[in-house]
């Protein structure tokens, strides 16, 4: 009867992207341990870095010594809070507002990062959106186009812009999802994009191996981020994550260490792989 378990207070937000400032309780982004310099002197660009998993990754990277650029759509208040948190760790944070599904913006975001920091070592493709529909007939051409443009086209555009500036030892980390492995009957287009990201990750890893650039992915399960209350009705939010073996949603700071591992030299012999912080949900890897 885990599907009846209440894991979060019922709540909704009326538009995407969601706002972390409107969530209760707030997602837990705080790193759990002191830094050890694993990203000292590095620069990371994180799309969707204003809140949720992106925020937790930005703060953890900063604690480990990296300067960070975060890309966000229009969640200015969340982005400024992430900037404050990164700077609290003693690192610099560049905030860049715009839409990753536009190739021109993707190029501009990379150029601004290089102008600010002079280098780029880690790219985290993380921006995403999802729009549940009960019937495939209800997925409009406009929704299908938008979901693919944000979730997979944006990964291509930002990667294309960043790649000429990534050298040997650089890392690209793509956010996919547990839905790419187990499916989701009400998130058909979203799940399809996440499956595409897995294939993109594995293919790009083979392409870039000879350049010494590693490409990996992270496939989170149900994580408490602004995407959840901005996507689902209050009664479903209240049960979010209850159907996992751990019977709760994960927190962003439980996912961020996967990105740190893949970004730093700890994973120097890992490429084309996907990590699965998903609360024990069985997947086919």
From TrEMBL:
Keyword annotations: Oxidoreductase
Compositionally biased intervals (Basic and acidic residues): 16-31
Sequence ranges of Low complexity compositional bias: 1-13
Keyword Protease: no
Gene source species: Microvirga thermotolerans
Pfam families per UniProt: adh_short_C2
Region feature Disordered, mapped onto this chain: 1-39
Gene Ontology MF annotations: oxidoreductase activity, acting on CH-OH group of donors
Entries under InterPro entries matching the protein: NAD(P)-bd_dom_sf, Sc_DH/Rdtase_CS, SDR_fam
Family stated for the protein in its record: Belongs to the short-chain dehydrogenases/reductases (SDR) family.
Protein name: SDR family oxidoreductase
Keyword DNA repair: no
């Amino acid at each position: 009867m885990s599907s009846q378990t209440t894991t979060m207070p019922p709540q909704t937000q009326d538009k995407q992207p969601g706002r972390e400032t409107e969530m209760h309780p707030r997602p837990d982004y705080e790193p759990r341990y002191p830094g050890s310099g694993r990203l000292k002197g590095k620069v990371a660009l994180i799309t969707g870095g204003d809140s949720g998993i992106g925020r937790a990754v930005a703060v953890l990277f900063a604690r480990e010594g990296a300067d960070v650029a975060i890309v966000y759509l229009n969640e200015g208040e969340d982005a400024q809070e992430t900037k404050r948190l990164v700077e609290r760790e003693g690192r610099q944070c560049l905030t860049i507002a715009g839409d990753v599904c536009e190739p021109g913006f993707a190029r501009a975001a990379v150029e601004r990062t290089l102008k600010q920091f002079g280098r780029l070592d880690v790219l985290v493709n993380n921006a995403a959106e999802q729009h549940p529909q009960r019937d495939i007939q209800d997925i409009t051409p406009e929704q299908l186009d938008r979901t693919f443009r944000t979730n997979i086209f944006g990964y291509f555009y930002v990667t294309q812009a960043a790649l000429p500036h990534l050298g040997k030892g650089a890392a690209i980390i793509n956010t996919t999802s547990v839905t790419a492995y187990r499916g989701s009957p009400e998130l058909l287009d979203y799940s399809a994009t996440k499956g595409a990201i897995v294939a993109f990750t594995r293919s790009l890893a083979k392409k870039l191996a000879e350049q010494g650039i590693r490409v990996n992915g992270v496939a989170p399960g149900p994580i408490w981020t602004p995407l959840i209350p901005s996507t689902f009705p209050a009664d479903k939010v209240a049960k979010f994550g209850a159907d996992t073996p751990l019977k709760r949603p994960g927190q962003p700071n439980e996912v961020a260490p996967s990105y740190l591992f893949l970004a730093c030299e700890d994973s120097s012999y890992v490429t084309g792989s996907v990590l699965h912080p998903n609360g024990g949900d069985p997947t086919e890897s």
